[in-house]
Design goal:
The chain is mainly β and about 425 residues long. It folds into 2 domains: about 15-50 and about 270-434, no CATH class; about 60-255, no CATH class. It contains 5 helices and 26 strands. Strands 4, 5, 6, 7, 8, 9, 10, 11, 12, 13, 14 and 15 form a 12-stranded antiparallel β-sheet that branches. Strands 1-2-26-19-23-22 form a 6-stranded antiparallel β-sheet. The radius of gyration is 28 Å and the shape is elongated.
């Protein structure tokens, strides 16, 4: 009789503690002196955070164009890069200039409407493309001055997945001037050091576009081709290629304007925008420096359930809001990264893989959107969270994987823990010894 009273008392204590600290349980298995419990209504504090900037140099991807998103606002992208002299640049005395073009190869990625022509502007830089002091790479907010007159301002249809090269005709005035430098053996084209002083770099930007597109930023897929011919008994067509060089200096500038959107009030810095202020939703689009942060304040109260307890398994389920991804691609993988209170990502052993980060397994179900989710094993993180203090505390940032983080416009709208249709959940299987 006494034994049954103790077990009943322990059950009342467990239920009381759960209700007191913001979580509840079910599926309790009576194993004598052991209670095995599923806790699944933990408080998840979610907020959208605006990062200062992200590095975009040396990715091998040139992003050009722009589009308007009803949630994330107007986005514009442009790319900067160096070109180098052709290895062989001897001009025959009979040579005659023909034309000049910029050649690029789409990498198959795009965001927006590609069924309409896209407007591109090509510029020569008036400011040398070099890293500022104390910088080790370029970031998305940086920009360089360009000459007032573009080398091209043209509208073109682009089929990003057909595998064809894109040819943009450039100004013949600019092309003829470059050809004359080669023909006259000018010092400006005598070697690449002099050439870099004369030709400081190039920029390609969109102009009120409907789509942002990705291109391969390599020396074999991004270059200027100068066409000429030699007339003798027959016309011999020739060309010089000025190929992209210094791939570590190629970078993408990204601008965003959120006027009139739910993110218009998103502040920079640590505060962020709580999900409760945006319809129980939080937002992710790394190229516009938008990420979601999560904190779990009620986990620290788990030891109050009893002196001897252990988290056996913990699972975090993040659900995209239904209706927000039918026309917009979701990040194929979403990483969880431990971050301090200033949102600095720190590697460690608080997530169950080698470097402390973890990518969720995405399941997409268009017929039943409630089943679409990113699912994570956060057992190690939750165990560590109980022991964290003010100095060691880590929340979680949800961001795309490294490659997509720097080069893709994929976006995500997540439901928070109180979202009516797509609720985020933390499920903890807890073993309590009485």
């Amino acid at each position: 009789m006494m034994r049954n009273m103790l077990i009943a008392a322990a059950g009342v204590l467990l239920l009381s503690a759960c209700e007191k600290n913001g979580f509840s349980y079910d599926n309790v298995l009576d194993g004598g002196n052991v209670q095995y419990t599923l806790l699944d209504t933990f408080t998840i504090q979610m907020r959208t955070v605006q990062l200062d900037s992200i590095p975009t140099s040396g990715t091998g991807t040139a992003l050009i164009g722009g589009y308007t998103d009803p949630v994330f606002g107007k986005v514009e992208a442009g790319t900067y890069f160096h070109i180098s002299l052709p290895a062989e640049r001897e001009v025959d005395i009979r040579a005659v200039y023909d034309s000049i073009e910029l050649i690029m190869k789409p990498d198959g990625s795009w965001y927006g409407d590609t069924t309409v022509p896209q407007q591109f502007r090509v510029y020569k830089l008036s400011q040398k493309l070099v890293l500022p002091d104390d910088y080790y790479m370029f970031f998305s907010h940086q920009q360089f001055a360009v000459e007032s007159t573009p080398w091209a301002d043209t509208s073109v249809m682009i089929r990003p997945t057909d595998g064809n090269l894109l040819h943009l005709r450039l100004s013949d005035i600019k092309g003829k001037a470059l050809f004359d430098l080669l023909r006259d053996k000018s010092q400006d084209v005598s070697d690449n050091d002099y050439f870099t002083e004369y030709f400081k770099g190039m920029a390609i930007r969109g102009n009120n576009n409907k789509a942002a597109l990705g291109f391969q930023a390599t020396d074999s897929n991004l270059y200027i081709r100068l066409h000429y011919h030699i007339s003798s008994t027959e016309v011999e067509e020739k060309y010089f290629d000025f190929r992209m060089s210094s791939p570590d200096l190629q970078f993408n500038e990204i601008k965003s304007d959120r006027s009139g959107t739910a993110l218009e009030q998103l502040p920079s810095g640590q505060t962020g925008l709580p999900s409760t202020a945006t319809g129980n939703q939080s937002f992710v689009q790394s190229l516009t420096r938008t990420v979601t942060r999560m904190d779990f304040p009620s986990i620290a109260a788990l030891p109050e359930l009893g002196k001897y307890g252990r988290i056996m398994y913990a699972e975090l389920v993040l659900r995209p809001v239904a209706g927000t991804y039918r026309d917009y691609r979701l990040p194929p993988r979403l990483m969880l990264c431990p971050a301090d209170n200033k949102h600095y990502v720190l590697s460690g052993d608080t997530l169950s893989n080698d470097n402390g980060y973890q990518g969720g397994n995405m399941q997409v179900d268009f017929l039943n959107p409630a089943n679409t989710a990113y699912i994570y094993d956060v057992t190690s993180y939750c165990r560590a969270l109980i022991e964290m203090d003010t100095y060691t505390y880590r929340g979680l940032l949800a961001i795309p994987t490294a490659g997509d983080y720097y080069t893709k416009f994929d976006r995500l709208i997540l439901g928070d823990g109180k979202n009516s249709g797509n609720r985020a959940q933390l499920k903890i299987y807890y073993l309590l010894y009485n």
